N-acetyltransferase
Amino acid sequence: MSTIADTMIRKIRAQDEASLARLYEAAFPTEDLVPLLRRLHAEVPDLLSLVAVGGANASGAENSSEECVGHALFTPCAVEGTDRQVALLGPIAVAPFRQRQGLGATLIREGSARLCQSGIQQVLVLGDPAYYGRLGFRPEKRIRPPYELPADWAGAWQSALLEGNAAPLSGTLRPPGAWLAPSLWAP
Protein backbone atom coordinates (compact mmCIF):
# COMPACT_ATOMS: atom_id res chain seq x y z
CA MET A 1 0.00 0.00 0.00
CA SER A 2 1.28 3.49 -0.77
CA THR A 3 -0.09 7.01 -0.45
CA ILE A 4 -0.08 10.31 -2.34
CA ALA A 5 -1.00 13.29 -0.19
CA ASP A 6 -4.15 12.20 1.63
CA THR A 7 -4.94 9.40 -0.83
CA MET A 8 -4.16 5.73 -0.26
CA ILE A 9 -3.35 3.30 -3.09
CA ARG A 10 -4.30 -0.32 -2.54
CA LYS A 11 -5.56 -3.39 -4.35
CA ILE A 12 -9.21 -3.32 -5.28
CA ARG A 13 -11.75 -5.00 -3.00
CA ALA A 14 -15.16 -6.47 -3.84
CA GLN A 15 -16.91 -3.61 -2.01
CA ASP A 16 -15.25 -1.09 -4.40
CA GLU A 17 -17.43 -2.10 -7.37
CA ALA A 18 -20.06 0.67 -7.05
CA SER A 19 -17.46 3.34 -6.32
CA LEU A 20 -15.38 2.18 -9.30
CA ALA A 21 -18.42 2.42 -11.58
CA ARG A 22 -19.05 6.01 -10.40
CA LEU A 23 -15.38 6.86 -11.02
CA TYR A 24 -15.44 5.60 -14.62
CA GLU A 25 -18.78 7.28 -15.34
CA ALA A 26 -17.34 10.61 -14.15
CA ALA A 27 -13.96 10.23 -15.87
CA PHE A 28 -15.36 8.88 -19.17
CA PRO A 29 -18.95 10.13 -19.51
CA THR A 30 -19.17 9.15 -23.21
CA GLU A 31 -17.66 5.64 -22.83
CA ASP A 32 -18.96 2.62 -20.96
CA LEU A 33 -15.86 0.84 -19.65
CA VAL A 34 -17.61 -0.74 -16.66
CA PRO A 35 -18.61 -3.95 -18.51
CA LEU A 36 -14.97 -4.47 -19.56
CA LEU A 37 -13.80 -3.91 -15.98
CA ARG A 38 -16.35 -6.37 -14.60
CA ARG A 39 -15.46 -9.00 -17.16
CA LEU A 40 -11.72 -8.65 -16.54
CA HIS A 41 -12.18 -8.84 -12.77
CA ALA A 42 -14.35 -11.95 -13.16
CA GLU A 43 -12.19 -13.79 -15.70
CA VAL A 44 -8.55 -12.93 -14.93
CA PRO A 45 -7.43 -14.27 -11.55
CA ASP A 46 -3.96 -12.64 -11.52
CA LEU A 47 -5.12 -9.19 -12.62
CA LEU A 48 -3.46 -6.28 -10.81
CA SER A 49 -6.21 -3.76 -10.08
CA LEU A 50 -5.20 -0.77 -7.96
CA VAL A 51 -7.45 1.96 -6.60
CA ALA A 52 -6.70 5.31 -5.03
CA VAL A 53 -9.16 6.09 -2.24
CA GLY A 54 -9.87 9.07 -0.01
CA GLY A 55 -8.65 12.62 -0.42
CA ALA A 56 -10.61 15.83 -0.85
CA ASN A 57 -13.40 16.19 -3.40
CA ALA A 58 -13.93 19.06 -5.87
CA SER A 59 -15.36 21.35 -3.17
CA GLY A 60 -12.46 20.62 -0.80
CA ALA A 61 -14.50 18.40 1.52
CA GLU A 62 -13.03 15.05 2.49
CA ASN A 63 -14.19 12.04 0.47
CA SER A 64 -15.16 8.85 2.16
CA SER A 65 -11.97 6.97 2.93
CA GLU A 66 -13.30 4.21 0.66
CA GLU A 67 -14.45 6.30 -2.33
CA CYS A 68 -12.35 5.53 -5.44
CA VAL A 69 -10.72 8.62 -6.93
CA GLY A 70 -8.33 6.71 -9.19
CA HIS A 71 -7.90 3.27 -10.72
CA ALA A 72 -5.34 1.46 -12.86
CA LEU A 73 -5.71 -2.04 -14.27
CA PHE A 74 -2.82 -4.25 -15.37
CA THR A 75 -3.77 -7.42 -17.26
CA PRO A 76 -1.18 -10.21 -17.54
CA CYS A 77 -0.83 -11.34 -21.16
CA ALA A 78 1.18 -13.84 -23.15
CA VAL A 79 3.35 -13.01 -26.12
CA GLU A 80 3.17 -15.50 -28.96
CA GLY A 81 6.36 -17.53 -29.23
CA THR A 82 7.60 -16.96 -25.66
CA ASP A 83 6.80 -18.26 -22.20
CA ARG A 84 7.25 -14.85 -20.52
CA GLN A 85 4.32 -12.68 -19.52
CA VAL A 86 3.87 -8.97 -20.05
CA ALA A 87 1.15 -6.71 -18.67
CA LEU A 88 -1.35 -4.60 -20.58
CA LEU A 89 -2.12 -1.30 -18.81
CA GLY A 90 -5.65 -0.02 -19.06
CA PRO A 91 -8.13 1.16 -18.48
CA ILE A 92 -6.97 3.83 -16.10
CA ALA A 93 -9.17 6.57 -14.63
CA VAL A 94 -8.80 9.52 -12.29
CA ALA A 95 -11.74 11.50 -10.93
CA PRO A 96 -12.01 14.79 -12.83
CA PHE A 97 -11.35 16.88 -9.70
CA ARG A 98 -8.10 14.92 -9.06
CA GLN A 99 -6.70 15.04 -12.62
CA ARG A 100 -3.41 16.82 -13.32
CA GLN A 101 -2.17 16.21 -9.77
CA GLY A 102 0.04 13.17 -10.44
CA LEU A 103 -2.41 10.54 -9.25
CA GLY A 104 -2.54 8.63 -12.56
CA ALA A 105 1.26 8.58 -12.75
CA THR A 106 1.46 7.38 -9.15
CA LEU A 107 -0.95 4.53 -9.87
CA ILE A 108 1.09 3.50 -12.92
CA ARG A 109 4.40 3.63 -11.04
CA GLU A 110 2.98 1.66 -8.10
CA GLY A 111 1.53 -0.96 -10.43
CA SER A 112 4.78 -1.21 -12.39
CA ALA A 113 6.77 -1.70 -9.18
CA ARG A 114 4.42 -4.48 -8.05
CA LEU A 115 4.59 -6.15 -11.47
CA CYS A 116 8.38 -6.00 -11.44
CA GLN A 117 8.42 -7.71 -8.03
CA SER A 118 6.23 -10.47 -9.47
CA GLY A 119 8.61 -11.08 -12.39
CA ILE A 120 6.83 -9.19 -15.17
CA GLN A 121 9.39 -7.16 -17.06
CA GLN A 122 7.37 -5.19 -19.62
CA VAL A 123 4.14 -3.16 -19.63
CA LEU A 124 2.27 -2.24 -22.82
CA VAL A 125 -0.34 0.46 -23.32
CA LEU A 126 -2.46 1.92 -26.10
CA GLY A 127 -2.67 5.57 -25.18
CA ASP A 128 -1.51 9.17 -25.58
CA PRO A 129 2.24 9.19 -26.34
CA ALA A 130 2.69 12.63 -24.74
CA TYR A 131 1.29 11.40 -21.42
CA TYR A 132 2.80 7.91 -21.32
CA GLY A 133 6.13 9.12 -22.73
CA ARG A 134 6.64 11.13 -19.53
CA LEU A 135 6.35 7.85 -17.63
CA GLY A 136 9.02 6.02 -19.62
CA PHE A 137 6.86 4.41 -22.30
CA ARG A 138 8.26 4.32 -25.84
CA PRO A 139 6.74 3.33 -29.19
CA GLU A 140 6.50 -0.46 -29.38
CA LYS A 141 7.61 -2.15 -32.61
CA ARG A 142 8.46 -5.71 -31.47
CA ILE A 143 5.23 -6.79 -29.79
CA ARG A 144 2.24 -6.40 -32.07
CA PRO A 145 -1.26 -5.74 -30.70
CA PRO A 146 -3.86 -8.49 -31.28
CA TYR A 147 -5.51 -6.38 -34.01
CA GLU A 148 -4.03 -4.04 -36.58
CA LEU A 149 -4.25 -0.45 -35.37
CA PRO A 150 -5.31 2.48 -37.54
CA ALA A 151 -2.24 4.16 -39.09
CA ASP A 152 -2.74 7.35 -37.08
CA TRP A 153 -2.62 5.32 -33.84
CA ALA A 154 0.80 3.77 -34.54
CA GLY A 155 2.58 5.97 -31.97
CA ALA A 156 -0.05 5.18 -29.34
CA TRP A 157 1.08 1.53 -29.04
CA GLN A 158 3.86 1.78 -26.44
CA SER A 159 5.76 -0.19 -23.86
CA ALA A 160 8.05 0.28 -20.89
CA LEU A 161 10.66 -2.18 -19.72
CA LEU A 162 10.47 -2.63 -15.95
CA GLU A 163 13.98 -3.96 -15.59
CA GLY A 164 16.76 -2.19 -17.46
CA ASN A 165 18.47 -5.43 -18.45
CA ALA A 166 15.31 -7.25 -19.56
CA ALA A 167 15.50 -8.46 -23.14
CA PRO A 168 12.68 -7.03 -25.24
CA LEU A 169 10.20 -9.60 -26.48
CA SER A 170 8.93 -10.05 -30.03
CA GLY A 171 5.65 -11.51 -31.22
CA THR A 172 1.94 -10.85 -31.05
CA LEU A 173 0.25 -9.95 -27.78
CA ARG A 174 -2.17 -12.64 -26.58
CA PRO A 175 -4.46 -11.01 -23.99
CA PRO A 176 -7.32 -12.75 -22.15
CA GLY A 177 -10.65 -13.02 -23.97
CA ALA A 178 -12.12 -9.82 -22.51
CA TRP A 179 -9.53 -7.85 -24.52
CA LEU A 180 -10.32 -9.62 -27.80
CA ALA A 181 -13.16 -7.34 -28.87
CA PRO A 182 -11.95 -5.52 -32.03
CA SER A 183 -13.81 -2.39 -30.91
CA LEU A 184 -11.31 -1.99 -28.04
CA TRP A 185 -8.50 -1.61 -30.60
CA ALA A 186 -10.15 0.78 -33.07
CA PRO A 187 -11.66 4.29 -33.02
